[in-house]
Specification:
Helix content is 31%, strand content 28%. It is of the alpha/beta class. About 5% of the residues have low confidence.
Length: 216
């Protein structure tokens, strides 16, 4: 996908600064198709969208009668002052509590829907489990998390992208501020990460992304 964007934009689309740039590329999303049906059927939900602010997402979701909150977790985690040196094994130590307080604190608000997208693939390892636990804490029972996971860590398709919703069965991907992918999840590692949640539904995809809706 990165090469395709480069061709369309004369190689200037590969290094966006803060925000998004270049064309939006559509992809079919079984997870979004399923989640959209709930959003259309149940007005008045509270939605958390993790990513750089998307007017497209805000306008569509509010048009259905929902409240929308934004949290650009990857940017906040990778550019914030959360590093606290290394432990005795040489692993990077983070101020996990400080990050959660700054990026995922909502004054006791509870969410029904979280658009997590590929966030967990790009977060520093020390923050991954903590973010999932905080999401569990700030969601209502029966809440849904739409998460996408890369199946490999190399290739043009691993570039960091912003996702925009549509009124149909597609989501649109757009090149975003670049951070290196940290991991590729297997089905087993996803299940372990979300252990204790009430259920999950996986959706097959033809590209290098797998899709899961986790139920709180």
């Amino acid at each position: 996908m990165l090469r395709w964007l480069d061709k369309r934009h004369g190689n200037q689309a590969s290094t966006p600064s803060r925000g998004v740039t270049g064309p939006k590329v559509g992809r079919h999303s079984g997870g979004w198709m399923a989640l959209r049906k709930r959003l259309e059927a149940e007005p008045g939900l509270r939605v958390l969208d993790t990513g750089y602010t998307s007017p497209t997402n805000i306008n569509y979701l509010t048009s259905l009668g929902h409240s929308v909150y934004m949290a650009d977790l990857v940017h906040d985690a990778c550019t914030g002052e959360w590093k606290r040196g290394e432990d005795e094994d040489g692993k990077q130590v983070y101020d996990v509590d400080g990050f959660l307080e700054a990026s995922l604190s909502f004054a006791e608000k509870k969410f029904d829907i979280v658009l997590l997208w590929t966030t967990l693939d790009y977060l520093p390892e020390a923050l991954v489990a903590a973010v999932v636990q905080r999401l569990a804490d700030v969601m209502n029972p029966g809440g849904s998390v739409l998460a996408l996971f890369h199946t490999r860590t190399q290739g043009d398709e691993t570039v960091h992208c912003r996702f925009h919703v549509t009124p149909g069965d597609d989501v649109e991907m757009q090149l975003a501020e670049q951070f290196p992918i940290q991991r590729a999840f297997t089905n087993r590692s996803i299940e372990r990460l979300f252990a204790g949640w009430s259920g999950h539904r996986q959706f097959l995809a033809k590209d290098s992304l797998s899709e899961v809706i986790m139920t709180r």
